[in-house]
Specification:
The protein is an alpha/beta fold. 22% of the residues lie in helices and 38% in strands. The chain has helices at 17-34, 50-59, 109-119; strands at 3-6, 9-15, 41-46, 65-75, 78-87, 97-105, 125-133, 146-150, 156-157, 173-177. A 6-stranded mixed sheet has the order 5-4-3-6-7-8, sandwiched between helices. Strands 1-2-10-9 form a 4-stranded antiparallel sheet. Helix 2 (50-59) links the parallel strand 3 and strand 4 (65-75). Helix 1 (17-34) crosses helix 2.
Length: 178
């Protein structure tokens, strides 16, 4: 099993790229079926979701659009518990079907705040699509419409997720080795 070092931590492969791509293709097929005729706006949450959002978009079979918003709530491996919007959204969401594309949902605080904020912009509907969800860590009740993987409460890097901005470029997902 491949073990790598990033900064002061060691990580081992937990989900290979091929498995991730297979799940993303299945998610895109389901979203395409569910959203037929709606031209959804995908709203990627930067920085972590950019690889997932790009791969998801390439698998979509219906007309759709994409934009991004940047939020921050992590320092190192720990969530700060405070979400601050860094780069806002300029698109008019009135009457639009919006799908928030997130890399990982753990406590759900970021997603809850984002859903509340976007809800004031009068979209027709809001949906959550995440690459990873940590069900045992969820503190906020959320309807997660689309999720590729349910994972344990381990710290992961790769495929867009980082440890202090390092490791995003890794094609596989790695779990921290304690």
């Amino acid at each position: 099993m491949s073990v790598i070092k990033i900064e002061d931590k060691q990580f081992k492969v937990s989900i290979p790229e091929a498995e991730i791509k297979t799940r993303i293709k299945a998610l895109a097929a389901q979203i395409s079926k569910d959203m037929e005729g709606k031209n959804p706006l995908f709203l990627g949450v930067l920085n972590g979701s950019f690889i997932f959002a790009a791969d998801l978009m390439r698998e979509m079979t219906i007309p759709c659009e994409i934009s991004f918003v940047k939020l921050a709530s992590y320092q190192g491996t720990i969530s700060t518990g405070k979400v601050q919007e860094v780069i806002g959204l300029n698109e008019d969401l009135t009457g639009r079907t919006v799908i928030i594309v997130e890399d990982i949902v753990d406590t759900g605080r970021t997603m809850k705040q984002m859903m509340e904020s976007l809800g004031t912009r009068r979209p027709a509907s809001l949906h959550i699509c995440t690459l990873f969800v940590k069900p045992t860590k969820l503190e906020e009740p959320l309807d997660i419409d689309y999720s590729a993987f349910s994972i344990p409460d381990d710290f992961i890097v790769g495929y867009g997720l980082d440890y202090d901005q390092a490791g995003r470029q890794l094609k596989d997902v790695y779990t921290i080795v304690e």
